[in-house]
Amino acid sequence: MPLIPIASTVRFPTRETNCPGSPPDLDKETPHQRSSTHTVRYSPGSTNDTTRTTMIRTRTGTTLLAASLLLAACAGPSADENPGPPPPTSSPSSAPPVPAGPVLTRLAATLTDAPADTTRGGYQYVERRTWYRDLIGPPGPTGWPERIRVDQLWRTDDAAKGRLVSVHLVTHGCIPDDGESGSWAGRTGDRFDQPPPRQPDALRTHLLIAGGPGENRPQDIVGGVAMLYERHALTRPVRAAVLRLLAQQPGLLAQAGVTDRIERPGTDLILPYTDRSGVPRRDILTIDARSGVLLAARSVITGPIPPQDPRLGPDFPTLIVAEAANYRLYVDSRRTPNAHTPAAGCQQPTLRSTQSNTSPR
Predict the structure, then answer these.
(1) For position 248, what pLDDT does the model report?
(2) Cα separation of 56 and 181, whole Å?
(3) How far apart are CA 246 and CA 222, in angstroms?
(4) Which of 42, 63, 125, 315 is the most exposed place for a label (fewest CB within 10 A)?
(5) Is 61 exposed, middle or buried (0-12, 13-18, 19+ CB in 10 A)?
(6) Given this model, what pLDDT does residue 267 score?
(7) pLDDT for the residue 69
(8) pLDDT at site 48
(9) Cα 92 from Cα 341, distance rounded (Å)
């Protein structure tokens, strides 16, 4: 079972139309992106449409980060969703952004230990939490409902065996996701499941080896790093290689003095760019400023969305905004002696009764 579900389905009723293929701004899917791709299926229909067609919009490469943040919409609970104000965001910083290269180069040379360096055991353990929008059907008066999902992954170094446990946080605790939980094993040939290299050039190849033409831009590297942390408890030599690779990316900025959603201090690595659909974005990685561990990842829209193919329907710009509202928090990353330590799912003390450390501030 893949760590990141690969598709989220959105269906809107609209005028009858024929959409024989992908819109002009879409990229071709490659095997590399297929393991981490967000697919939107747009199903136009009317009472006269007896051959209901499906347009599949596959976003790859430039939105690897968004793909890594997006979870399967069909897995969410239907009731008891997170009420109240919008979700918390990383705290703002008064420090101005500076070029990230020198900052990351210095950090790579002075990294301190992280739990992945000091713990022992036959399994890597990775825990993450994701705030995301349940993109099914047309948006309601306040948009698509927001949900919080927790994923715990135990895996052996060779990815031959492991365990995945997923739950959804709700107002008074959590709901097990039996559809996603279960035994886990890496996929044959998937680079992200293999041990990552310790040299920046080799790591770059590792992240992009199966990418298509043009899939070697800074946003592809940033997205690949976020995906790497989905499946690995990275040791200090690999974290140093990650930082040195990021230091080579043109346009990457560093902003110190931020905190993530559970108040961990860090530094934001910010990559501004315009995607192939003409949407201005920033991909942001929040890292620990001493150990270099990835704390959080998100993608934000920073400007107006250009006109989209009208065949996608009037709600499609809203969909793009909702997709960018995802936030991934990397809570834990270390080694553990077995696939049952720490406690899993709703048995975990931090998840059992309330979402005190994940609710909006």
Answers:
(1) 97
(2) 27
(3) 7
(4) 315
(5) buried
(6) 97
(7) 53
(8) 33
(9) 35
Provide DSSP, 69-95: H---GGGS-SSS---SSPPP-PPP-SS
Three-state SS letters, 14-57? CCCCCCCCCCCCCCCCCHHHHCCCEEEEECCCCCCCCCCCCEEE
Give the per-residue pLDDT at 89: 55
Return d(Cα 204, Cα 241) in angstroms, integer.
9
Structure tokens at 9: 């389905």
Tokens of 146: 């927001």
Helix, strand, or coil (residue 232) = coil
From CA 208, how far away is CA 1, in angstroms rounded? Answer: 22
Tokens of 338: 């077995």
Rounded to an integer, what distance in angstroms lies between the CA atom of residue 224 and that of residue 249? 13
Dihedral angle computed from the Cα positions of residues 306, 9, 230 and 341, in that order, rounded to the nearest 10 degrees: 150
Residue 212 is predicted with a pLDDT of 67
Cα dist. 124→5, 102, 192, 250, 338 in Å? 20, 31, 14, 32, 9
Q: Is the dihedral of CA 183, 187, 193, 197 positive or negative?
A: positive
Can you point out the beta strands (E) in 71-213? 98-99, 123-133, 146-155, 162-170, 173-176, 182-184
Cα gap 197→242, rounded to integer Å: 9
- Amino acid 217: pLDDT: 92
17: buried, middle or exposed (CB in 10 Å: 19+, 13-18, 0-12)?
middle
> pLDDT under 70 in the chain at which residues?
1-94, 188-189, 210-213, 352-361
Residue at token pair 């499941």: 193
Phi/psi region, residue 278 (left: phi>0; alpha: psi -120 to 50; beta: rest), is: left
Q: Which two tokens stand for residue 166?
A: 């997923």
Q: How far apart, in whole angstroms, are the C-alpha atoms of residue 229 and residue 310?
A: 37
Cβ(299)–Cβ(284) under 8 Å?
Answer: yes
